[in-house]
User: Fold Alpha/beta hydrolase from Cryobacterium arcticum.
Amino acid sequence: MTSYVWARADSADAPVAVLLPGVNYSVQAPLLYWCATILAERGWHVQAVEWTVDDEARAHPLPFVERAVADAFDSCPPSSRRLIVAKSFGTYALPWARRAGIAGVWLTPLLSEEPVCLAVREATTADLAIGGELDAFWRPDNVAGTEAQLLSVPGAGHGLTRQGDWQGSLELQSSVLKRIESHLDGT
Assistant:
């Protein structure tokens, strides 16, 4: 695994964001690409992670993802404001984020996995978790009582798209990105 600078900020104490992909969802895929663009346009330093999820990573996802996110932040300039934007498999970073006190935008978090659920239950209003109603991994009942902001997207699956409806999917993702933008402006 490796990370690279997606966008370099001009300010010395600019906020820093790390993007974590999914298994088959790179940082070049639509949701992460546009999140990176939104952050860059707001003056954030954006660090993007690339990885190959092999059998060992699948068998032990927490240490794999935690090492990736820690290494990515170590490669970033220091900042008093840090954020993680993660998709699916990348949301295994949630326990690490809780320990580090870093908020996140958690796209299709794996709410079927107990370590992820526990971390979301402990999350704050600075965290935003978004999942599709039709996604088998999106189980908001598993995180009842969380302070995190949860957004269930009607008619969407794990890719936050609508099957067989590219135009509807594009509109849906546009509304999701506007919600993320609004969240960033409020935190």
In short: Strands lie at 2-7, 16-20, 45-50, 82-87, 103-107, 128-132, 149-153. The chain has one domain: 2-186. The domain at 2-186 is CATH 3.40.50.1820 (Rossmann fold).
